[in-house]
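Standup notes, structure subgroup. Blocker cleared on the zinc ion input:
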Amino acid sequence: MANRVGAARATKPALLARLRALEPTWPVAPAERRWITERQAALLLLKSDTLGPPIPNRVVTELEGITVTESEQLPKGLLGASQAPPLEQRVTIFHELKHVIDGLSAAHARRASHRNQCERSCEHFARAVLVPAAALHADWQAGHRRIPALARRYQVSESLMAARLHELGLGAKAIGARRAFCRAVTRLGRTKSERRSAR
Ligand SMILES: [Zn+2]
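Run returned:
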């Protein structure tokens, strides 16, 4: 099967420029980086007139300034490739787009600490585009909470859906952690006599 390859072409990338403009040129804390990534994903979807789910690959393949090709060989200078199944290829396409948006220099990207941070950002961006926060929150509120069904609806893997639910504070793990935190805070707030009578 042919590899799928994402590559950038510098041809009037108006939306790309706007996505890049959201990227700060100074160091930011991880929480702020995640927030910026969510904003980039939301802007991309808004400007792509995309009504999802599922989010179509054309959000990237029709993006001005981007060329996605299929190739058996990865030509020099292109940004990424995957022989993975279709669902993984979807992630790869959006992941590679984030690399194009970030546009870091090769020397910068070679630094291990930066590389890890970049990879985390790219993975987050792919999840944020493929599973938009607003859509998932709406589904969750409407009672659609089963990971396999949600994964099918958004055409992503179940592991990606589980990660996205956790990221947005939804899902069993996140809710369990929040409840435990609330119980601990409530316990701390009680007076000694209240704690005795509660036993
Ligand atoms: Zn990457």
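Discussed briefly. The longest strand covers residues 3-8.
Next: hand off to the docking folks.
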